[in-house]
Amino acid sequence: MVAIPSIVVIGLIWLPAISSVVLSFTRWNGIGNLSGSDFIGLTNYRNVAANYPPFWPAMTHNLIWLLVMFFIATPAGMFLAVLLDKEIRGSRFYQMALYMPVVLSLALIGFIWQLIFSQQNGLLNAVTGSNIDWFGDQRYNLWAALVATSWRQVGYIMLLYLAGLKAVDHSLREAAAIDGCSESKAFFRVIFPVMRPINIIILVVTFIESLRAFDLVWIINRGRNGLELIATLVTQNVVGEASRIGFGSALATVMLLISSGFIVIYLRVVMKGDR
Question: Residue 198 contacts by C-beta under 8 Å, 6 or more apart in sequence?
C-alpha cells in the first residue's frame, strides 16, 4: 500500500526534478544530441540572469500575478465565504455557481475568456464599443489574463475558507457577541486567528499557483508579447523550437528553488505549531 505510491512519486516527481537540476549544469539539446552534452557549470544560470532578456520581465510578471492573487482574489474569496456562511437565501446556488470555474481546467478557462476578450467578436468590445485586443496588446494582456485566472481562484479560496468557517466552534461567535463585538471585529479578532491552518494553506497554495501559472497564459499567446512567465519560458526552451534542455532546466531549477524556499518556511511553521 505504501510501496506502489512511493515508486510512482519517485518516478514521476523526484527523478525528473533531480534530472532537471543535473541537466541545468550541462549543455544538452535533446535526446538526438547525446554526444553533444557536456558539463558547463553555472554558465546556464549566468546566461539566464544576464543574457536572456525575457527572464526578468517573467519574474516581474510572476510577482504581479502573486500580488493580485494574494491581495485581490484571496480577500474576495474570503468575503464570499463569509457571506455564504451566513446561509443567506439561495446560498447553495451561489456556492455552486462560484465554485463551478474551479472544476474547469485553466486551458478551458482561457478559451472561455477569449470569447469575452476577443478583439473581433468578444463580448467586452461588443458591449463597450471599443476595439481593444485584450489578449494581444501587451499593455492589457497580463491584466486580462489575471482577470480570467482570478475568476477561478476566487471560487477556490471561497471553498477553503467556507470549510474553515464551518469548522469554527460556534461558542466563540457567541462569546464575542456577548462581549459586545461587532461582526467585523469578531471575525478579524476571534474567528480569523482561529483559522490559522487554513490561512497557511491558502498562502502556500496561492504562492505556488502564482509561480507555476502556465495553462491559461499558454492558451492565450504562448507566453509572448508582454505575457512572459517563468513556466512558459521553461516550456519554450525545453520542448519548443529552441530545444535547449540544459538552459530550460536551469530556468526550471530557479522555479524549484523559489518554491522550495517557501515550502521550507511553511513546514517550519507547521512543525513548530505541532510541537
Answer: 160, 161, 163, 164
Grid cell at residue 179: 462581549
CA distance 38 to 25: 9
Instruction: Note whether 125 and 132 are within 8 A (CB).
Output: yes
Looking at the domain that runs over 3-104+133-166+196-274, which CATH code has it been given?
1.10.3720.10
| DSSP secondary structure code for residue 12 in this structure | I
Beta bridge partners of 27: 38
Q: Is 26 helix (H, G, I), strand (E, B) or coil?
A: strand
The three cell numbers of residue 265 are: 518556511
Q: Where are the domains of the chain?
A: 3-104+133-166+196-274
pLDDT along the chain (275 residues), means of 10: 92 90 84 67 91 92 93 93 84 87 86 87 87 86 91 91 86 82 83 85 85 85 84 85 82 88 75 67
Is there a contact between 237 and 253 (Cβ–Cβ < 8 Å)? no
* Cβ contact 239:229 at 8 Å: no
Residue 89 makes CB contacts below 8 A (sequence gap 6+) with: none
The secondary element (H helix, E strand) that includes residue 192 is helix 192-194
Closest listed residue to residue 230, CA positions, set 245, 247, 212 = 212
User: Which 8-state DSSP code applies to residue 135?
Assistant: T
CA angle 92, 95, 97 (to 5 degrees): 110
